[in-house]
Each structure stands twice: as C-alpha cells, then as structure tokens.
Specification:
This protein is α/β, with parallel strands linked by helices. It has 2 domains: 51 residues, no CATH class; 190 residues, Nucleotidyltransferase, domain 5 (2-Layer Sandwich). 40% of the residues lie in helices and 13% in strands. The protein is built from 12 helices and 7 strands. The chain has a 5-stranded mixed beta sheet with strand order 3-2-1-4-5. Helix 6 packs across helix 7, helix 8 packs across helix 11 and helix 9 crosses helix 11. It is elongated and about 70 Å long. The two termini are 29 Å apart.
Length: 270
C-alpha cells in the first residue's frame, strides 16, 4: 500500500523513521539485532522501508520492480487468457490477457452470472484469438468452462486445489501457478503499472508443508490479515497453469487460418 501511495499523486505520503520520531534510540535497535531480528525486519519496522521483503512474502517488491521496468514492444505468441470467476454476488471476476512474456491487459467485472461471464470472455476472445483460456473451474467456474467450450474456445478447467504438476515442489496447483508466475516476473515478464495488480501480487505469504513443499497462503487467511482476495493476481497466475509453447500456438493458428488475429489491443472498444 505504501509503495502505491508514493506513485499516486492523489495520495499524501510521508515516511517517518525511528530517527525522525526519536521514540527509540540506536541501542534499542541494536538489542533487536542481537536478539535475532533480521535486517529486513528492522528496516521495515524502524525505518519504514517497505521495499524490504518479509521472510514469508511470496513475491517481493524487487521481483515486481523487475517486471515493471522491462520494456517489450512486440508481443509474441502464444496468447493466453487467465480467468478467475467470482464466487459470490459481491465478488468480482478477473480476466488476464498475456501475449508471450507481456501482460497486455487485465480487467474485472461484477454482477454477471456464468452465462454472461462466458459471453463476455468469448466476445473478447473473438478479437484476441487466445490459444488457451485457463479458468479456475472450482464451483461456478465449471459452468463457464463448459459454455466456453460449447462456443468453440480452447478453455481449460484448472482445479486450483488439485495436484501440482511438480508435486515434489508445490503443495497444490495454485501454489504452482503462483510459483511459475514469480519466476516469470523475476526472469522475463513485462507488466505495466497497475496499482490493484501490484497490491495483489505482493499480498500472499507462503509456508512449507510437512513434505517441504511450497504452500501459498489461503484467501481466507489473507482476509483475516485484512488483505482482500487477490483476484487480479490469481487471474494472471492462471495463465501459467500449463505450458503453452509457441509451436502449439502456431498449430492452432493453422487450424484457424481464416481468423483475424489481433495482438495489440484485445479489448478494442470494450
């Protein structure tokens, strides 16, 4: 939140460190170091350094900055959609549109049932021609998957709570999707500034299960900490549910040679 406030001219932001307030002296901080407090934690707690990573924070500010600073002019295939479907009436659905290593757009909406949601995604897909549409099919999402398939789209039902492909490393599929997304942000991904998405990506914490597998923080546990459900983050993570190679996208294009593929603005007039 503090990082976003610094970027937003409509917000007032002021950083007051322990040196500014003089509430604690240097000896107290040194005692904290000697007692085992990490340097990152000291920077956060006493010097208001929000860039310092929490030990349990899954995606760090540094990972995020790397992706924000990358410039990628020409988007590449494959075109992959990730759809996180709203569970309840006041929740929101989120659709991420990734072209190769560049996130082209991400949108949200509320108040649509499963058929209306499928129609909205299909209308956008008619312009962008995605090679895959990965949908969190648990609960109401399953109906959206069925309808998208009826409409001839390459929709894939992703069970976020199901088994990961790499079962030795990840507790479930959701943790694996976020893990692949984290690697992408660090190594090659490009995203545009988006305060809501950035907040979502920095929100979840993680731990290890009894088998030393990465386990992402549950949404209910995030809400207990006052952090909302990371709908945009989940939508982008879904685009990494399976590996879609450029060759697979090329074969899909050959099967759809009469289609007009738009790689620049998948939303157009939406």
């Amino acid at each position: 939140m503090a990082v976003m406030a610094q970027k937003n001219p409509a917000w007032y932001f002021e950083r007051l460190t322990v040196e500014d307030t003089r509430v604690l002296n240097a000896e107290h901080i040194q005692e904290e170091r000697l007692s085992g407090m990490s340097e990152d934690k000291i920077q956060q707690e006493y010097y208001c350094s929000f860039e310092a990573a929490e030990a349990v924070q899954f995606i760090t500010y540094e990972h995020l900055q790397q992706a924000l600073e990358r410039v990628m002019e020409d988007p590449q295939r494959p075109v992959i959609f990730g759809l996180d479907v709203a569970r309840f009436g006041d929740d929101r659905s989120a659709l991420a549109m990734r072209h190769g290593d560049k996130l082209m757009n991400i949108i949200t909406w509320q108040g649509l049932d499963t058929m209306q949601t499928a129609s909205k995604v299909a209308e956008i897909a008619d312009r962008a021609r995605p090679d895959r549409i990965f949908v969190d099919g648990v609960g109401v999402g399953g109906g959206v998957v069925d309808r998208l398939r009826q409409l001839g789209l390459r929709a894939v039902d992703v069970n976020a709570g199901g088994r990961a492909t790499d079962q030795a490393r990840y507790y479930n599929k959701r943790a694996e999707c976020w893990g692949r997304m984290r690697d992408w942000l660090k190594d090659r991904g490009a995203i545009a500034a988006n305060a809501e998405l950035e907040f979502d990506l920095l929100g979840p914490e993680y731990s290890y299960d009894a088998n030393n597998r990465i386990q992402l923080e549950k949404k209910d546990d995030m809400k207990k900490r006052g952090i909302p459900s990371p709908d945009l983050g989940d939508a982008l993570a879904l685009t990494f549910a399976e590996r879609v190679s450029p060759m697979m996208a090329s074969l899909a294009d050959q099967a759809d040679q009469n289609s007009h593929v738009v790689l620049t603005d998948p939303l157009g007039g939406f």
